[in-house]
Amino acid sequence: MYHSSTIINHIADFTSQRNTDLLAFSLLKSVNSMISCSSTKIITIDKKKDIRANISFENNHYTVHDTSIEIDSALRHSFEHMNNSSMAAFTLKTKIGYSVIHLLHHDRKTEQFLIINLEKKMAKENAYILSGILSIYSNFIKLLNESQTDELTGLANRKTFDSAISSVFNAYPQEYEKIEDERRAPNEIIVKEQHKYWLVIIDIDDFKRVNDEFGHLYGDEILIHLAQIIRSNFRNEDLQFRFGGEEFVILLSANNQMECMQILERFRRNVEEYQFPNLDTVTVSLGVVEFKKETFHITSIDYADQALYQSKRSGKNQITFFENMLSQGLAKKSDIQGGSVDFF
Q1: Residue 344 located in a structural domain
Q2: Which residues pair with 287 in a beta bridge?
Q3: Where residue 161 sits, what CATH number does that domain have?
Q4: Conformation bin of residue 201: beta by default, left when phi > 0, alpha when psi is -120 to 50
Q5: Cβ(222)–Cβ(208) under 8 Å?
Q6: β pairing state of 319-321 and 284-291
Q7: What is the DSSP string of 273-307?
């Protein structure tokens, strides 16, 4: 049996986290140190039943997989059975033992499950301790999500922006590739970037007029509808924020500017064609810049903001890239580049 001080130390460790991914890692660490198991994992599934993330602990090290991971059909059926039966916990008999499954968290976008793989059935005292820890974890993650979520739209709020984009770059490390070329030194390694990211600022055109004519409650309804359009047009992995007022920010993954433009143009058209109540048309203007790890966050926001106001000046209901403004001599880069200072 565990000393109460050991349990308290584990609880203190995971409740000290302010990032949901780090919180998940900390929970796995606590479970593995307190319960004798062959492996544990946390699986996050979106409403389309696609796996968003898979964090596992086995052989004393952690592994993080992306959405390409496949899971056993019996495990997936267990998730569905838990949903249909409104079960928070379920034990699955496997070929090599047992899998104890707990529903950790669910919201409008995702469900998160903890899976503990055991050779034998879990002892009653371990099940009791685990139940208590998971209750605290569930309460804490709800508080964490509430503090990081915009109450009106349900999108992430501005204060989470800095930590969220940092986690994106940490989650997708640079890809290293050996180049066989006589012009290079033997076994020389060069670095290739796996992903390109684009910082997008979205602003509702003439939103003040909507508030003045129909009132702020109706303005709030427009914001809620726009947040729904954002969710339906962008992927879960494209980070979505409400920065305040009528301004939204997306951190979008796209291979190049043309692909980014196609995604954003589809979104712009969908907003323009959407049937908002009591209004013929609502449009949005967008400003975009390629988001680079070596550029200060505040600088990237300034670049996207300059592009947004160019869209406004040019007639609204359009998309402007900061890079195009540079090539046209309509803007210039900041003298301050690089570094690791965070402003939020």
Answers
A1: no
A2: 201, 320
A3: 3.30.70.270
A4: beta
A5: no
A6: parallel
A7: HS--TT-S---EEEEEEEE-TTS-HHHHHHHHHHH
Is the domain of 184 the same as that of 295?
yes
Q: Please, are residues 205 and 281 in contact by the beta-carbon 8 Å criterion?
A: no
Mean pLDDT of 266-278: 94
Is residue 335 situated within a structural domain? no
**Packed helices 124-147 and 4-14: angle between N→C axes, nearest 10 degrees:** 30
Which candidate, 263, 239, 107, places its Cα nearest to that of 172? 239
Answer yes or no: is 342 within a domain.
no
Judgement on whether residues 301 and 184 belong to the same structural domain of the protein: yes
- Partners of 106 in the β-ladder: 111
- φ, ψ of residue 99 in degrees (nearest 5): -120, 120
Amino acid at 344: F
- Residues 176 and 309 both lie in one domain: yes
Last residue of a domain, one of 114, 147, 180: 147
**Backbone φ and ψ of 294, nearest 5°:** -85, -5
What total of structural domains would you count in the chain?
Answer: 2
Cα(86)–Cα(84) distance, integer angstroms? 6
What's the rounded Cα separation, in Å, for the pair 44 and 106? 9
Query: Do 239 and 258 share a domain, yes or no?
Result: yes
Range of the domain at 114: 4-147
Q: Which distant-in-sequence residues (6+ apart) come within 8 Å of 141 by Cβ?
A: 20, 23, 104, 105
Coil, strand or helix at 119: coil
Residue 336 forms part of a structural domain: no
pLDDT tens sequence across 282-312: 999 999 999 987 888 888 999 999 999 999 9
In this structure, are 93 and 194 located in the same domain? Answer: no
Tokens describing residue 175:
């890809």
Tell me: the pLDDT tens digits for 113-128?
999 999 888 888 888 8
Supply angle C-alpha 54, 142, 137, rounded to 5.
Answer: 65
